[in-house]
Amino acid sequence: MKTLASLSYTAAPVDKGYTDRILEVDLSSRRISIRTVDPAFRLKYIGGRGYALKLIWDETTAETRYDSPENLLVMASGPLGNEPRFPGTGKFVVCTISPLTDTFIDSNIGGHFGPLLKISGFDALAVRGLSETEVVLVIDAEAGTIRLDQAPAYGPDIDGGGLSYGAALLRDLAGGEFDENHAAVTNGLGAKNARFGIVNSLFYDPRRGRIRSKQAGRGGTGTVMRLKGLRAVVVTSDKERVQANQPADADGVKQAGASLKRVISQVDPGQFNLRAWGTTVLAEYMDRFHLLPIDNYQYGHLEQAPAVFADVFLNRFFARQMPDGCYLGCNLACAKGAEDVMLTRGPHAGRKVGVDGPEYETLAAVTCMGIFDPQFIMEYNHYCDEYGLDTISMGVSASFLMECFQRGFLSEEDAGYALKFGDAEAANRLLHETARGEGLGRVCGQGVARAKKWVADRHAARTGAKVEKTLAELDRFGMEVKGLEFSMYITKESLAQQGGYGFALKGPQHDEAWLIFIDQVHGEIPTFEMKAKALKWFPLVRTWFNAVGLCKLPWIDVRHPEAAKTETPSQNQPTLRYYVDYFNATTGSKKSLQDILDDSERLQLLQKMINLRQGKGTRPFDRIPERAMGPVFENEYQVRADYYDAWLKEKAGDGLPASLADRQRLLLDLRKQDYQKLSDAVYQIKGYSDQAVPLAQTLENFGLLDEQAARLLQAYRA
After folding, report:
1. What's phi and psi for 182, nearest 5 deg?
2. In the list 286, 321, 560, 687, which could disulfide-bond 575, CB 3.0-4.6 Å?
3. What is the pLDDT of residues 260-291, one digit of tens each?
């Protein structure tokens, strides 16, 4: 590995969760530098997502696109990341201007990279510029060096993979043996050829004796990383992890962590039992309540669904004796893994591999293609990770193309082969074509928003139809908002989750507002007013988790027994108190829950302003496709006719149209009205205009009305 640039340094100590240092790398000039951060910066922007938002707000412009040299790629944890005595502290975020949405994207990811980056002396890594050759960034805290090395070539089989390439790097940089003091982030061949490339976070698991991975899957962060010429970042430190944050109150940290661990151990086995099942357990719940995406979100339940329920993966693939955490000390341990999975398809057919997952989202991305084969799900999981492709965007883009084929918008001549729901061989072919940038994969890899235009053009050329009219039809079932594909929940029967997807600042990803369970399953926010308030409150909490370096699952998926006695059980505030205590004990603050929500709201407003600057922040960009609100075609209505008819009678009375088609159109019209009413209510609660633009007073309240923001507001008023 030829060194192209280097910097000697001494790792800044961590103090109360922060180092007050950002590592900056300009790949165009090959300049490595260290920025000292004023303590006031962290008080206002917290960490993680907050740091990235501020850096991207300050250093990019309305003209910045994902492939612009000035586009930043930021990786950052937060003050609460890296504490094995508290569950779920291995998280960090990867942020940039997205190839899919053309605005700010953040993707949450686990593993050891974020914690090791911090104890190596940095709260964040900010990469700008474009390298003429592929490089690897090596941060070696023990040697006191930071290097940009020419990326090694290992041969075609390894060079095309995000997992295999990173494993080879970690092996070589650790002297031929893997250890827990080395971690890496990488990208693969898919990130080179598709807009939804991911970042893999790789770490060594001594219990399994292999490299494991977690993914920053959404929005094309890996695509940006690969385009910049940055093939991998490797970080090394052998510093102790326990109390590495040097908290203000070590006993307070220990007590908060012990309290949450106790709730998890007592409650999780009787609720989701994530420690045993992992997130695949959600498949059974989703199917039961008609929420499991099938055939591009046309259906939410099928008789075949039990073939991919959690017990199938537990019995066939998961090692029962190995609860797996993303990071040290997490007793929820919901990250499942499988060993010696024999691959039957693709370039690795006949090889036994370890597979990390599947998570529910990956499983449902496959059912979205109409496939209920657990073996195919494992292989899809493996290849998406190895190629560095987002399992969600890949599955939803493929499903959209399958429905285009089903409804005659896409011909076999256009596609190159029959692309039918339920055809695992066709889905497998499209996956590998997408990773290689070949055939129909070139279209699929652009994502749903851009695929719609390609399909409309081809359909018009073949049939003489008007492009605009075809696009309008495709918009009805093309499952994207702001350019990002929907994550894996049917929203036809949940107004709250419709808003959760439509108002999500990054696009329809459930980590901003996962309200489907409390709305449709538990029925805990039954009134319109409760839904509207939830669409402000829940995103604030979830944004805060991304800022401080924490996993959300111990809060949202493990309900504290005392929550039922509160006015808002769904908020699980008894558990949130542990998080507030942990924050205060670490940083020395004396914040209340409301203070934390205010800190988070500042970050949400800043992200909203970036969206406005990039042209994606007004009311039209919060619109959701018709299928997110109800059945677009008669076949969808027919399978849930009893439910839809009952809903219509409640809303419109007994005088319903006689024909199913007329009832379907009436239902969609009423659902559209409800969504517009919800939009008005949520914008008012958030301090926005009716066009979703923050009011000047709202920005001023949070100290965000700087010169750039004032110019933006003036432009939108004009």
Report:
1. -120, 135
2. 560
3. 999 999 999 999 999 999 999 999 999 999 99
